[in-house]
Design a protein that fits this description.
- The protein is of the alpha+beta class.
- The chain has a domain of 131 residues: Double Stranded RNA Binding Domain (2-Layer Sandwich), CATH 3.30.160.
- It is built from three helices and eight strands.
- Strand 5 and strand 6 form a beta hairpin.
- The chain is elongated, with a radius of gyration of 25 Å.
- About 12% of the residues have low confidence.
C-alpha cells in the first residue's frame, strides 16, 4: 500500500514539474515563420520571441494568422582569438605535386602536431528583411507589407570601418547578443501589428 502511494506521489511530482516548466505562450494567433537563408535557430528565435511578445502585449488578441518570411544578411564575426580544437594528433593530407592530380589516386596523410587551436567565428545577422501577411479567422488578408531591421552593436567602440572598402564590420565577442536583439526587434514589430489589428 505504501509503495503504491509513493509511486503515485512521484508520478504526480513529475507531471506537475513538467507543467510548471512549460514556457510556451498561449495565444489565439497562429504564426508561421519561414526563411530561405537564415539558420533554423534564428527562425526558431524569431518565432518564440514573437509568440512571447504577442502573449505579453496582446493577451486578448483576436484570432489571426501571421505568416512571416525573414530574409537575412549575415557577417562572419570572430568570437574568440583561438578555440582549442581538441587533443590528440590530427591527420593532414599532402597536396599533389603532379601535373595531373587526377591520376595520383589516394594522397598520403601525415600527422599534424601543429598548434591545436584555431580562430573561432560565427555568423551574426546584420539585417532582416521581413515580408509578412496577417489574415483574419476567415482567411481574408487584412495587412501585408515589408520592412527591414538592422543590427546595432551594443557598444559603439565595436564598430570598425575598413577605409579601403568603406564597409563597416561588427567586431564583438557576442554575435549571439546581436542575433537575439534583431530577432526580438522583429518579434516586437509583428506583435505591434497584431495589437493594432486586434483593436
Amino acid at each position: 500500500m505504501n509503495r503504491t502511494k509513493a509511486v503515485f506521489l512521484v508520478t504526480s511530482l513529475v507531471v506537475f514539474g513538467a507543467c510548471a516548466h512549460n514556457t510556451t505562450a498561449t495565444t489565439p494567433v497562429a504564426l508561421k515563420v519561414t526563411s530561405t537563408n537564415a539558420d533554423r535557430h534564428f527562425v526558431s528565435d524569431v518565432r518564440k520571441a514573437t509568440l512571447r511578445a504577442i502573449g505579453n502585449s496582446v493577451p486578448e488578441a483576436r484570432p489571426l494568422t501571421v505568416t512571416a518570411a525573414v530574409d537575412v544578411t549575415t557577417e562572419r564575426v570572430m568570437t574568440s582569438p583561438y578555440a582549442v580544437t581538441g587533443g590528440g594528433s590530427r591527420q593532414r593530407t599532402i597536396p599533389s605535386t603532379s601535373s595531373d592530380p587526377t591520376k595520383d589516386g589516394a594522397l598520403p596523410t601525415v600527422t599534424d602536431n601543429g598548434f591545436p587551436a584555431s580562430q573561432e567565428s560565427m555568423d551574426a545577422v546584420t539585417e532582416v528583411r521581413l515580408t509578412y501577411t496577417i489574415s483574419d479567422s476567415s482567411g481574408r488578408v487584412i495587412e501585408s507589407d515589408q520592412t527591414r531591421f538592422y543590427s546595432i552593436p551594443h557598444d559603439a567602440s565595436e564598430m570598425v570601418v575598413d577605409a579601403d572598402s568603406n564597409r563597416r564590420s561588427i567586431v564583438t565577442l557576442s554575435p549571439l547578443w546581436s542575433n537575439r536583439n534583431i530577432a526580438n526587434e522583429t518579434a516586437g514589430f509583428l506583435a505591434s501589428r497584431v495589437k493594432a489589428l486586434s483593436r
